[in-house]
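Re: beginner question about structure tokens

> Can someone show what the tokenized structure looks like for a real chain? I only ever see the sequence side.

Sure, here's an example I had lying around. Input first:
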Amino acid sequence: MAALDRFSTARLRAERLRPSDFGEVRRMHLDPVAMEHLGGVRDEAGTTAYFERNLKHWRDHGFGLWIVYERDGVEPIGRAMLRWLRVDDNDEVEIGYAFYEPYWKRGLASEVTLACIALARRELLAASVVAVTAPANEASQHVLAKAGFAYEREFPLEGAPCRLYRYRVPPGV
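And the corresponding structure tokens:
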């Protein structure tokens, strides 16, 4: 699925996760503000496990985590993802994103979310996608609502309470 190796939006460029991106993933995992609603700062072992799991997802499925840049930028400003998530014995396509604080409140999360919905529909033929937030992450919940996601319920993920949201492709689209 080379079509999923990279994508761009009006203001963003996303490149698939590569082995050389470990330092960038570690940088975000050490940022307490960026990680506040993502399980908190991760140690080296946690980052390594996360990184290896996401590289494996690309190898196994041909899609996964992207490092996100401003359209013409060279420094990473965040990440986005489409990946399989197991929810109640069902495989779901999950959309996710995280940006560094200087890039918050600029509509970038909404922009990348809409791009990921379009990719999931076009490339994965997904009839619905899910997203997960921490219960206290009201900013992310607002992004999801604006993108057309509906709150479904609370559920545990990796031992933490989360909120599950779903976007359903309208019939006939």
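Each token stands for a local structural state, so reading them left to right follows the chain. The domain at 2-168 is CATH 3.40.630.30 (Aminopeptidase).
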